[in-house]
Amino acid sequence: MSAPTLLLVARHGETAWNAEGRIQGQIDVPLSETGHGQAIALARAIAQRRFDAIYASDLERVRQTAAPALRQFGLPVTLDPALRERHYGSFQEITYKEAKARFPEAYARFAAREPEFDFLGGESLAGFAARVTRCVEGIVARHPGESLLVYTHGGVLDVLYRRATGKSLQEKRDFDLPNAAINLIECHGADWRVRAWAERAHLESTLDEPPL
Length: 212
Hints:
The chain is of the alpha/beta class and 212 residues long. It has a single domain (5-88, 123-199), classed as Phosphoglycerate mutase-like (Rossmann fold, 3-Layer(aba) Sandwich). 36% of the residues lie in helices and 17% in strands.
């Protein structure tokens, strides 16, 4: 059997909006001081690994999280908008609490993980998952048997975990998505497996995504 492609996938470091419970989506929010520290800690934690290529979302919080590793490994980064977070439409820029109060019916559909719900003008869960899956499957196909470092967002990690475990999009999330944690997925062609998830021993503290 040919060697698998190994993905080390990391969510960006913490932002001020993460700390506030504010919905970022595709709004270009930078890292907080805590987030910059997490980015450095993550780079140090993976310093002894070898990577053949680095990919990242083009949003600032992800680019800033990747920066210490780029300097460390001396590799270029391929920025791909298809690795961006889901577009949360009318929910973007407000907190989860505000979204629930302002749009109760829409929030209920969001919390129920309805595949076609698009946040009143954003991106549906089904469309988002298709975008992410198509992007990452393409990356894997371009790098057979190689080790890849991918920096992205919590929603993207949610989709990839479900792709690797067979968990449906509608099932309630029962796994963590911490800022700047280490997640490993092994890909043998179309067969993906989670090798490690949400490893965070290198971090003093980290925030999880809301369990929706």
